[in-house]
Write a structure and sequence with these properties.
It comes from Vararia minispora EC-137. The protein has 506 residues and is mainly alpha-helical. It has 18 helices and 8 strands.
């Protein structure tokens, strides 16, 4: 008897819960947003350039959390720190997916490229490897390699001062490729360096709206050639470019292990623990490090260029940085991480380089893994969820005069760094947060400290000795991140003879 009462009570409770579930789902609206047209929804409202500025304008009208629709797919834009905290961070795993991108499926990226992989076990296997080798404690082992790369960088810049900007890409690639593959960009085959640059030409195709198949995935069921020769080529070349990023440097290490020439590297270490012929485990390793290679170079490069641009434009910032560096480091040795606590102004420059014109202003979209019910609205399973980092980091209420590059805003009255967790939004949020953020921090902080200790970043001069104006230009299209378009600047040694003497010791 007791059992049947219990059973009846359970059935009644479940029925009530189900009723509650469905009635809540149907009674709660989506977050507010601009009016939609039939079928295409807001397709025509979303600008191709500077979309994050439009989203923050809409936020003023509709609220921090807005919804849009494109061909029936819901997009949710979270425009403030509070919105991200209350909606996502309170229940991160529900937001841990990545939206389906038809191009990525067609070009075979969806099962190996973390920026489009669903939150599956396969994703977790790859993410774990990255996290393991790129967490704060692990990266300390790469300091010696970083010093070598900074010394090579300075030698190159002394020879070609006007190339300092492009050279930051070589420095970022040199550091990653040595740590990950034991590969030396100065002496090794340039083919392996080039494959990453080639791949970057296709990565913009993941952006919402970049291709019609991404908005209307049903078109992807057609053979690529039916969507035009140009599209079929993009699929084929994109597939090959990503395969080479994953496989070519990895196979180069394997061949080196076999021939006894492989230098110490993360790939070599990871392979050492594997049983011979474990093809699946090998694939996980080559994918994980292919992601490091493809995601780590241009991001560091873009942000360092933000800082160089401002150094060339605002000599007064550089003067302050150099006063600090001269006091703490001097000119007889290279700066190192033990100096960091005593170099708050350098830290402030780095924070401002991440905040001012943030490199990835809309992050990488997340996807809801299930329906999410909030007080006033619900977000359906499968919705694309975007954090508007661009709006958060340029919010005038938090960062007065946000368009101005001012390191001082990150310092207290007594010159100490003011902790600002919002800067971390540059690296996303929740379970998919950038696993390379500590490595980026290492790569960039020591670069800035080093270049500013030994060089003045100035305007470049033309062949007649006239200064070339520094142009601040962004295209706002997000195709290769929101990095500055190429500008002219030079790095002039502050004391060439002394620097050359110092570099001879390395
Ligand atoms: C300025 C430097 C960098 C910025 C601004 C940046 C930013 C981001 C952002 C916004 C995301 C998406 C996070 C999210 O979904 O919420 C991301 C993901 C990722 N980043 Fe970075 N990143 C940088 C450097 C790096 C570096 C140096 C590496 C590698 C060493 C790296 C590897 C990755 C990977 C693999 C993902 C995908 C993670 C996943 O979806 O599971 N990033 N990054």
């Amino acid at each position: 008897m007791e059992q049947s009462i219990l059973l009846a009570a359970t059935v009644a409770a479940s029925a009530l819960a189900l009723h509650g579930y469905f009635s809540r789902r149907s009674s709660l609206p989506l977050p507010p947003g601009p009016r939609r047209l039939p079928i295409i929804g807001n397709l025509l409202d979303i600008p191709k350039v500077y979309p994050w500025i439009k989203y923050s304008e809409w936020a003023k009208k509709y609220g921090d959390v807005i919804s849009l629709s494109v061909f029936g797919h819901t997009m949710i834009i979270l425009n403030t720190h509070e919105a991200i905290k209350n909606v996502v961070l309170a229940r991160s795993t529900k937001f841990s997916g990545r939206p389906h991108v038809q191009y990525a499926d067609m070009a075979d990226w969806s099962t190996s490229n973390l920026s489009v992989m669903s939150a599956t076990r396969e994703w977790a296997d790859r993410y774990r490897i990255m996290n393991n080798y790129f967490r704060p404690k692990a990266i300390q082992r790469y300091r010696q390699v970083q010093t070598e790369k900074l010394v090579s960088m300075m030698k190159r810049v002394i020879k070609d001062p006007n190339n300092v900007q492009n050279d930051t890409r070589k420095y970022a690639a040199a550091f990653i490729m040595d740590v990950v593959y034991g590969f030396d960009v100065e002496t090794g085959s340039q083919h392996l360096v080039q494959i990453n640059e080639d791949f970057q030409k296709y990565s913009y195709l993941l952006l919402p709206g970049a291709l019609i198949v991404n908005s209307l995935p049903i078109l992807g069921r057609l053979p690529p050639w039916m969507l035009g020769h140009e599209f079929a080529t993009l699929v084929e070349k994109g597939r090959e470019a990503w395969r080479r990023v994953r496989e070519d440097p990895f196979n180069w290490v394997k061949a080196g292990i076999k021939g006894g020439t492989a230098k110490e590297s993360l790939v070599r270490t990871s392979l050492a623990d594997l049983a011979e012929g474990d093809a699946n485990a090998e694939r996980v390793i080559s994918d994980a490090f292919g992601n490091v290679f493809s995601a780590g170079v241009d991001t560091s490069y873009g942000t360092i260029r933000n800082a160089l641009l401002q150094m060339a434009l605002q000599p007064s910032i550089q003067v302050k940085a150099q006063e600090e560096l001269d006091r703490v480091v001097g000119s007889e040795r290279l700066p190192n991480f033990d100096d960091r606590a005593n170099l708050p102004y350098i830290q402030a420059i780095l924070m401002e380089a991440l905040r001012w014109e943030p490199l990835i202003p809309l992050g990488i979209p997340h996807k809801t893994e299930e329906d999410v019910f909030l007080d006033d609205f619900y977000i359906p399973k499968g919705a694309m969820v975007i954090g508007n980092t661009g709006a958060i980091l340029t919010d005038p209420a938090r960062y007065p005069d946000p368009g101005a590059f001012k390191p001082e805003r990150h310092l207290s009255a007594d010159g100490q760094v003011v902790d600002d967790p919002l800067i971390d939004y540059a690296f996303g949020f929740g379970t998919r947060r950038c696993p390379g953020r500590h490595f980026f921090d290492m790569t960039t902080w020591l670069y800035l400290a080093t270049i500013l200790t030994f060089f003045n970043i100035t305007k470049a001069k033309d062949e007649n000795g006239n200064e070339i104006p520094v142009e601040v230009k962004y295209d706002g299209a997000l195709a290769f991140g929101h990095a500055p378009l190429p500008f002219s600047c030079a790095a002039v040694p502050r004391d060439l003879a002394r620097l050359e003497r110092l570099l001879q010791q390395y």
